[in-house]
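Final report, results section. Input specification for complex C-07:
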Amino acid sequence: MSRREACRGAWVRVRDLTVRLGGQCILQELSCDVEPGQVVALVGPSGTGKSTLLRALAGLVPAAGGQVELRAAVSGRQARVAVMFQEPRLLPWLRVAGNVAFGLTGTALPEPERERRVQEALEAVGLADRAQAWPRELSGGMAQRAALARALVRRPDLLLLDEPFSAVDALTRMHLQDHLLAVWARHGFSAVLVTHDVDEAAYLADRIYVLAGCPAAVRHQVTVDVPRPRDRGDPRLAALRARLLALLAQAYDRPAASAAAPVGEARPSSRIGDDRHDDHIPAGAAVPPFGTRVGRAGRAVRRESL
Amino acid sequence: MRPDRRAGGTLALSLLLPALVLVLWWLAVRLRWVEPYQLPPPRRVLTTLVTLAAGGDLARHIGATVARLLAGFALGALPGVVLGVAAGLVPALRRALDPTIQALRAIPSLAWVPLFLLWFGIGDRARILLIALGAFLPVYLNVVAGVENVDRKLVEVGRVHGLGPARLAWRVILPGALPSVLTGLRSGLSLAWMFVVAAELIASSEGLGFLLVDGQYTARPDQVVVSLLAFGLLGRLSDGILHGVERSLLRWRDALATSPGGGEG
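Structure output:
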């Protein structure tokens, strides 16, 4: 998993979850797990119900069947959940500090303690000097960091992220990803991340679920054993990315031509139609024989521009 | 320094047209383009204004009009906000209320005058209720639209923070609908001004509307012009006050982006 002792965060157990929306079955008997302190990414073709699964975890959509169990790892009580959406969704009539304090809704804390926590959360995302700004005055990246602060101020056991970095430019996205990893390393919550970006999934996650089908279920489960802190140019992440693209191409039910070349012999063509696989990227995996040196060099250049 | 100068320039520019009108008016009377019994010279209007003000009459009429306006506005706007919020939040209530209110809206509000007089007699009760009716509709319609158009995504933020219906309404939906509520109040107020004139044209003995009709009956155009001026100034003043309230409540909306081009990092 990571170098950190995974003792905080939340247990998530999803068993045979079925969700129907507007008479349509979106998720069918879906099962997945999140261990304490783990970052789990959900990937899959668009429209496969990744966000629906996340919203079911957040309690925003009701389950038609199955169980969802969210438990705090330490105490075993119901896990405290925070959600971060694709857009910052700051309340425009509250200043940044007020928006972060909104994250404490429902908690009974004395006023000084609230202020201290808000201040702390703002500092954690580097927005302490913008506490009195209006949301309108923030750039996209800053607004998303304020949303992260609003989620963190709750001290969540479980953080749910619905494509949180997809609406910002590439450089800002990398900053935000590293921000997230930094606060995750400090607070040790569990996280579930919906993303379209296989780079993001590979870089951030300990475990990746590939959702597919209509109604959707988990088709593949990939464990990422690359130690942290990770290097964006790590060849193991590149291999993982290629594997994910191949799995996604399968999920799209198309010939995996575009992604097949770099996957080489690892291409799991015989597995099409199988229900579920436990793929494993070992920590010491050898660099796969890629024919994509140019592309990787390009990636290295991009990383340097950080 | 430059903004000051520009503001001064704007003021001068905005006074240009009234000054021009004043000169034309004076010329028109002076050169007998219009008869004095139709339009008195500006000086005469000023004299009437001073006389009315000095005798305390003007203050009495203004007081009566403003009192009716405020009573009627409050009586119309308050139910407008309350019902509007309720109808915006509860779709069933809205479906129940909407056809009736749309039908009421189709009737020109002044057409109610005879009925109101029959029901409530010739007195302040009928007048205030008429003003209330005028103010109610725009407030109600704007509030319903405002509540319904609150960003669903923000409502969802409230829900993931565990807000129940009442606190969701108070902390997310009402602030989100506030711009529309204030727009509704402002148009309700301007309609209330219209209705206060209509109401005071009906057999009243004081008020700026009475001053208008009295001026007509006694063939005193100077008095008519004085009350028109008073209506204009009071209307502008009351709208200015609401506009100020709006500006201070909606500061978050007017805040300008100070960090364009991505202040990330």
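The radius of gyration of chain A is 20 Å. Chain A touches chain B at residues 58-60, 81-83, 85, 87, 89, 91-95, 102-103, 105-106, 133-142, 168-169, 171-172, 175 (CB under 8 Å). This concludes the modelling results for the funded period.
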